[in-house]
Hints:
Blueprint: E1 2-6, H1 10-21, E2 25-29, H2 33-40, H3 51-61, E3 64-67, E4 78-81, H4 97-106, E5 115-118, H5 126-136, E6 142-145, H6 155-160, E7 165-168, H7 173-186, H8 188-192, E8 197-200, H9 202-233, H10 237-245, H11 266-279, H12 287-310, E9 319-323, H13 338-348, E10 352-356, H14 361-367, E11 372-373, H15 377-380, E12 386-389, H16 394-397, H17 401-407, E13 412-415, H18 422-427, E14 431-434
Helix pairs in contact: 1-3, 9-11, 9-12, 11-12, 12-13
This protein binds uridine-5'-diphosphate-glucuronic acid.
The site of uridine-5'-diphosphate-glucuronic acid (UGA) has 21 residues, from helix 9.
Amino acid sequence: MRITTVGCGYLGAVYAASMASIGHEVLGLDIDQAKVENLNAGISTFHEPGFDKILQEALESGRLRFSTDYLSVSEYEAHVICVGTPQQIDSAGADLSYVYAALDSLIPYLDDSDVVVGRSTVPVGTAASLVERLRAAGSNATLAWNPEFLREGFAVKDTLHPDRIVYGLPEDPGGAARARAVLDTLYASMLEAETPVVTGNFATAELVKVSANSFLATKISFINAVADVCEATGADVSVIAEAIGLDDRIGPKFLRAGIGFGGGCLPKDIRAFMARAGELGVTEALGFLREVDNVNNRRRDHLVNMTRHALGGSFTSKRVAVLGAAFKPDSDDTRQSPALYIASKISGRGANVVVTDPAANHRVQAERPNLAVADDAYEAAESADVVLLLTEWQEFKDLDPVRLRGVVGTPHMIDGRNALDPARWRAAGWTYQSMGRP
Ligand code: UGA
């Protein structure tokens, strides 16, 4: 199938390359000339395992190219909107301006037989408003809603081998048949692999996505709330997570207590969901998400307080090594990163903070010039009064506690991700603290 993808950020670039890799002919559109040039040269603008390879292969196959020019859009039959929907600067709601701009850019080139596929995460009701926008502009193109569920760090795998595919179809039977036919062709290889397809109307498809992210956020805040109780009682939250996770109604995933969730999705999605519920007159229905957000924010401040205690009550002129800046391992994304929040807060209170991250150092330098950056953990920890592990990269889990002890000023480790083995670190002479574990 000949498709365009609009927006070549995280979602769009991975989607474009992945779709080309399974045989579609893809034109990736973006307004950012530099990004388009980099992608056409096979250069990724973000850190994502496996993406560079799939991008280069797709470019070499001749089935993928990127452009800022919409003129050839009319030669393509499906158009996939992959732009971001960040939190608005002055409210909790999602900023839909990129979604509307994407549709408006496509409209002049759409035939009535074309299908526009929305993949961005949007508040419920957005797809209906996009149909109105199409019709108001005189277009009879069909809209389908097809939310994405990719995780950073696993983006290629999640795009090519999803757990499920959601089809949000229009009410009119002709449009629904057309949309389904296009989606079936787009995802033919996944359907052959018996990936479950769940079908609903637009509102259902939109809500599947925000419900999934809200549930994941709730699971994390739940276990973090339990971690608080563990700290007050001497219980071990990781053992509790293991035990409750063995109940297959609960499951073991997303029960890792620590400094909480960040990134470009979970925080803004729960806030946008609450904001939309307010607009729909059902504020109370999602009141619990406010507490999910509060629990999450308190985790970061809790780690700041633990650090202050470890330093004897004052940050002034103390050396603090921060291992990790990205919001999760295998990503260089620092949006809403708990690690970066904590590093900045501690630095703002007078400590000399040295951060190191295997992939995100360049972002730290660009976004937080007040923070010093080191090439690796051993360099960051030189003469440190305390070491904070804030993103659980494998290379930090593999650190040698004996060697690290040789470089620090005081061997005190605060493990914000419960990623290290307490016995091993204590045996190497460290004071070791973690989150919700004795
Ligand atoms: C999330 C969802 O997991 C994806 O399914 C969804 O498609 C994506 O948002 C999106 O909306 O595009 P992502 O933001 O890549 O994916 O990150 P997650 O893997 O969900 O992790 C989010 C945060 O939760 C990270 O900061 C991570 O460290 C934290 N986390 C995760 C925990 O603190 N504990 C856990 O047990 C799991």
